[in-house]
Design goal:
Length: about 110
């Protein structure tokens, strides 16, 4: 019984200390020719394209969006794989419920 409790405690602690896979943010920003977002400056300039970052399932995902466009929600991982290519997929539905929005990380100047 003592070993079972110790095992359960270790599993709980391990699950709370997860780290996402490698962060490809600099590469994504560079490939999209965007600059890092540091504040509210993009909302003062009118129409701007920006990049939103999410964490889900120990991976980072990115959504391109804009202040003057109506973009489809289709975040991609670091390899460019879309999670919501089919909005009906179970992964897309889980992403919508579970993903952590890390905010705007870059914009096109």
């Amino acid at each position: 019984m003592k070993h079972l409790l110790l095992f359960a405690a270790c599993m709980i602690l391990a699950s709370c200390n997860h780290k996402p896979s490698a962060d490809c943010t600099p590469t994504i920003l560079e490939n999209a020719q965007m600059v890092p977002y540091t504040g509210s400056e993009i909302f003062e300039t009118g129409c701007v394209l920006y990049l939103q970052k999410y964490e889900w399932n120990e991976q980072f995902y990115f959504q391109f969006d804009g202040t003057c466009i109506d973009a489809l929600f289709n975040p991609v991982d670091c390899d460019g794989n879309a999670i919501c290519a089919d909005n009906e997929s179970i992964n897309c539905q889980r992403f919508l419920l579970e993903a952590i929005d890390l905010g705007i990380i870059g914009y096109l100047p």
